[in-house]
Write a structure and sequence with these properties.
Blueprint: E1 24-29, E2 35-45, E3 56-66, H1 68-73, E4 83-92, E5 97-113, E6 121-130, E7 144-149, E8 157-161, E9 163-165, E10 179-186, H2 188-196, E11 204-210, E12 216-223, E13 226-232, E14 235-243, H3 256-263, H4 278-287, E15 303-307, H5 314-326, H6 336-343, E16 354-358, H7 360-366, H8 380-390, E17 394-397
Parallel strand pairs: 15-16, 16-17
Antiparallel strand pairs: 1-2, 1-11, 2-10, 3-6, 3-8, 3-9, 4-5, 4-7, 5-6, 7-8, 10-14, 11-12, 13-14
Length: about 400
């Protein structure tokens, strides 16, 4: 829906007759997918937030049987690196994992034989500890700690431990970053929330960003935990609303110039994503969505040309593939599994077809050291070509 005032998004509301445009809608979606309009805003501050790294901590892995990357890090010849990167720690009972943590940027600081069993080893590591859920820190009767090292797309085992000192401690995270809704015109459901004046409300809505033509760009889930609500600087009949926290799913500051480009209108030419770095290109992919108007059977056949001049990282690869197959600004997966699903059909095109990959040497060189499967000798570039051919595409490299 676009009523000519810069307001769209598919929900019903009155005409906006002001000197400035609407840039955001507030919509609540129930479990059945039914939408209820809650309001609209001229602006939002605090939307783009860079994720802060977790605090560094020292942990001791007791009674370990090291495998893979951890075993290599403890090699006596000193040749292997002590940098383990991201490590997933799982707490197992006799059958399955019950809890898990992420150890970010993990480095081995020291190690020695275990006092109780010299055949095992105690390893001291430094890491940033991320706890995606607030576990109750209760353990099974005989817990086992499994470690997985995220060295690539795969998660090879790094071994098992009997316990981990320092893992079960309270963590309070970083201070909340507020979200400010500027020039907000509330509908009746939001007015009801404002009248309640409860600081910690649990109402969950979608903040939908619009481009200048009123077309929806992005949906961000937020909780309406309202800290303050006062007459807006843009007019007394509007509100400026401060939410105590905009949530963990906000885009990074690298996405801001990408959003600014999309605000001017849906991309109409290729390679508009190319000037951005890896984070910006990922933000570009995040703004692409499947074409909800695509109907009928998928088309096959034909020749599609991939401009490979700027394929220097994974997000750039998926931007270029989508443009080659379905056009600028279009969606055809944002990562490996998503792209694989799209090749199965449902988005207007499916193999067999011919993909002419121009300047393919750029990607070949960019992914020369990127091996997604440690057991395979294929690079990410070669795996992508193999995936396309497995699904019936003919890939011509130029």
């Amino acid at each position: 829906m676009d009523d000519g005032t810069g307001v769209g998004g598919g929900v019903e509301h009155a005409v906006w007759e002001r000197a400035f445009p609407v840039r955001y809608l507030l919509v609540q979606v129930d479990y059945d997918g039914d939408e209820e309009y809650w309001g609209r805003c001229a602006g939002v501050e605090g939307l783009f937030v860079d994720k802060l790294p977790p605090r560094r901590e020292v942990l001791t892995l007791r009674g370990c049987t090291p495998e893979g990357p951890l075993r290599d890090a403890l090699a006596p010849d000193g040749e292997a690196t002590a940098l383990l990167g991201e490590v997933c720690v799982e707490v197992w009972d006799e059958e399955q994992p019950l809890q898990w943590w992420s150890l970010v940027d993990t480095v081995v600081l020291a190690h020695q034989p275990n006092a109780g069993d010299p055949g095992l080893v105690d390893v001291v590591v430094g890491a940033g500890v991320e706890e995606e859920r607030h576990w109750r820190h209760t353990l099974p009767a005989e817990p086992r700690f499994k470690m997985l090292a995220a060295t690539s797309n795969d998660l090879p085992s790094a071994g098992w431990c009997q316990k981990i000192d320092g893992l079960f401690v309270p963590r309070y995270g970083h201070p909340a970053v507020p979200l400010h809704l500027i020039g907000c015109e509330p509908a009746e459901p939001l007015l009801t929330v404002l009248r309640r004046r409860r600081k910690y409300d649990q109402d969950r809505v979608e903040l939908r960003a619009l481009d200048r033509n009123g077309q929806e760009m992005y949906r961000l889930p937020v909780y309406l935990r309202i800290e303050t609500a006062r007459p807006s600087v843009l007019g007394a009949d509007l509100f400026d609303i401060k939410l105590t926290d905009g949530g963990p799913d906000r885009p990074s500051t690298a996405a801001r110039p990408v959003w600014d480009a999309w605000y001017r209108g849906f991309p109409a030419t290729r390679n508009l994503w190319a000037p951005y770095g890896t984070e910006g290109r990922q933000a570009w992919l995040d703004l692409t969505t499947p074409d909800r108007n695509a109907q009928g059977p998928d088309r096959s056949g034909g020749v599609h040309h991939l401009d490979g001049r700027f394929v220097t990282d994974r997000p750039g690869l998926y931007c270029a593939l989508a443009e080659a197959l379905v056009g600028p600004g279009s969606f055809f997966g944002r990562e490996w599994d998503g792209f694989k699903d799209c090749l199965g059909g449902g988005l207007g095109i499916a193999p067999p077809f011919t993909l002419v990959w121009h300047d393919s040497q750029v990607a070949r060189e960019a992914f020369a050291d990127d091996f997604p499967d440690p057991a395979s000798e294929l690079t990410y570039f070669e795996e992508m070509v193999h995936l396309l051919e497995t699904y019936g595409a003919t890939v011509t490299l130029r």
